[in-house]
Amino acid sequence: MNASKPPPPATSAGEMRAIPRGVWMLGLVSLFMDTSSELVHSLLPVFLVGTLGASVVAVGLIEGVAEATALITKVFSGVISDWFGRRKPLALLGYGLAAATKPFFALASTVEAVLLARFADRIGKGIRGAPRDALVADMVPPAIRGAAFGLRQSLDTIGAVLGPVLAIAAMALLADNIRLVFWIAVLPAAIAVALLALGVEEPAATASARPPRTPIHRAELAALDSAYWTVVALGAVLTLARFSEAFLVLRAADTGLPETWVPLVMVVMSLVYSLSAYPAGVFSDRMERTRLLGLGLIVLILADLVLALSGSTAATLVGVALWGLHMGLTQGLLAALVADTAPERLRGTAYGLFNLVSGIALLLASALAGLLWDWFGPAATFWVGAGFTVMALIGLAARTARAPRPGA
Fold first, then answer.
1. What domains can you pick out in the chain, each with its CATH number?
2. Which residues contact residue 346 at a Cβ distance below 8 angstroms, ignoring those fewer than 6 apart?
3. Which parts of the chain register pLDDT below 50?
4. Spatial contact of 79 and 352, defined as CB atoms under 8 Å apart
């Protein structure tokens, strides 16, 4: 991974000016869609358990299946975007499908209906994810790649702050009528689709970079070397450690946070995430990315320990803030590492495979987290998460120790 590290840029202000308009627009698209999604998701665990009578195990399975579906779908959309040399049409299809699912959360009267709506919503996320990330990588030079991914992630996460804030305000104004609150999510989703359709142009160079044969051909996949697969392995172990944010919401409710204020959990996490993602991306362009990734792992261990030991809402929110800092330090960074270690012609495929492995890990992690919660209590879920994170940190340290030094 170290051999492919891009040279450091000159200034942070220069990076900001150099980031293309298309990346900013993709960030705004993510902002509005995340506003819509997080408005729903910040209340969904409480809706499932409190209104529909679902168990915590069922919540874990729904979240695991939903998020794994999104990540696994990315492998197909990524391969297709490489093969046809077009990213935007797939991204538009994915955002459009996600927007179309939003009314069904308000209409759901059974756990199965929520599962179907969540499943379709995440298929949309899966279709758009790899082509969108590859589109960002296509638009920017390597020297500002970390900054570009960090910026898009920051704008995305601003939406993840606005969504729960809107949920809190709407719950207060609408007398805790969750179904009515869910209807509000339709508008920002529609705006996201319109911005993508009208405001983003695909670089002409994408089609010229098409692979000479299908990206899943053995000869093509051989171009994804050990540096890339190391990033994939680290992403999978991190996913096992992190499971679904639904468990943060349930942890806060378990420590006494009133239902109206439950979305505050996602506000705190996403605010810290948003504020840290772009600076982390800038720093990752100036230092070895693996060092910053190691710091992110340490922060996640601290978050899990605080959440495992938490006995109050205030302590839980501290753990949630640390969780958000971990996300800011690692998520854009992992996306940049995939771009660093994959050939340009296989970027969509590389993001798709990365997310396929992470999707399987997320399904296992969320199911395990729900079982641990029901069998041994909330603390066990976070203790095990800390254990998986320690494993990832040890693996990262071993990989860094084996990597050749510059000039060696």
1. 20-202+219-402 (1.20.1250.20)
2. 82, 211, 215, 220, 223, 224
3. 1-11, 207-208, 212-215, 405-408
4. yes
